[in-house]
Design goal:
The protein is 30% helix and 31% strand. The chain is of the alpha/beta class. It is globular and about 80 Å long.
Length: 309
């Protein structure tokens, strides 16, 4: 049985308006578990409660009720051990412009009480491909390098859990791919990754399991593939030999759309029809198929279905 990296049980956070004492429920009886060594996605629309949850983990916000266990340590009884077990990479780039990566990591290690002989500054810089920039001022680094340096800062105390809060916000495709390469390498070396992102295709590509929260409530928790399996509709685009745009195609529970004289789209529920039946129907209607392109639902479809956003 895998060791649990994180256990959350009936976690709630209620904020009170100081003027009218009106309650705002940010998290409502949230419960889930994260296995050691997995990449776990925490998704939700703006205001869903993701930031509140991360702030509770980081010790910036006090929970109203519930239990959190991080790497075997209770967040109330062993707060120092909890903080030592996690590294948080914030969304905002908060680096001192006049420090070098080497100095920044040395300072961060000192703040964690790590003795000089136990520091692995240069190893961490190598892991995030910044060893050649060790003595360059942070202000001279590119956007992608600064993001990687944030990951390095979070790793100085060698935490078993790394939390990434919107790590690729505002970076280009190449930098994003390089960041994910670094993250996957860390995961391959045994680091548990908890990821929040608004780029749903990233979560679909990276995460083993995904939790979706909305208005403080857990609305879905499953493997990425099982969440994708919830999408019932399938879309198929056919490249065909010329077809009359006025031609009527009718088949029970199937939607036919003639896009152009040489393009036809078919939409149907996955479990309602066999693909071969559709091909046979098109042949019977003298439609010659030149090519086929399929489109399955993605995580964005699941997200919209569950949150109505």
């Amino acid at each position: 049985m895998n060791k649990l990296a994180l256990t959350v049980e009936n976690l709630s956070k209620i904020f009170k308006n100081s003027k009218n004492q009106k309650e705002n429920i940010a998290l409502n009886n949230l419960s889930f578990k994260v296995d050691q060594g997995e990449i776990f996605g925490l998704l939700g629309p703006n205001g869903a409660g993701k930031t509140t949850f991360l702030n509770i983990l980081g010790g910036l916000v006090v929970k109203t009720r519930g239990n959190i266990n991080v790497w075997g340590f209770d967040i109330d009884k062993n707060p120092r051990q909890v903080k030592a077990s996690i590294g948080i990479v914030p969304q905002e780039v908060n680096l001192d412009a006049f420090f070098t990566p080497e100095k920044l990591l040395e300072l961060q290690a000192g703040l964690y009480g790590i003795t000089k002989k136990d520091r692995i500054t240069h190893l961490i810089l190598k892991m995030v491909a910044l060893e050649n920039k060790a003595k360059a001022y942070s202000r001279s680094l590119s956007g992608g390098m600064k993001r990687r340096l944030l990951i390095a800062k979070a790793m100085v105390h060698q935490p078993p859990i790394l939390i990434l809060d919107e790590p690729t916000a505002g970076v280009d495709v190449e930098l994003r791919n390089n960041l994910w390469k670094n993250v996957k390498q860390l995961n391959d070396e045994g680091v548990t990754i908890i990821l929040t992102t608004h780029y749903l295709f990233e979560a679909q590509e990276m995460c083993d399991r995904i939790a979706i929260i909305d208005k403080g409530n857990l609305v879905a928790l499953d493997t990425t593939q099982k969440l994708l399996d919830r999408i019932k509709t399938k879309k198929i685009n056919f490249k065909i030999k010329k077809i009359d745009g006025a031609k009527t195609l009718s088949m029970k529970n199937i939607q036919f759309k003639i896009n152009s004289p040489d393009s036809l789209t078919v939409i149907y529920e996955k479990n309602s029809h066999n693909f071969g039946e559709i091909i046979s129907f098109l042949h019977k209607n003298d439609i010659k198929i030149l090519d086929i392109f399929t489109e399955d639902g993605d995580l964005e479809d699941v997200f919209i279905q569950l949150t109505n956003r």
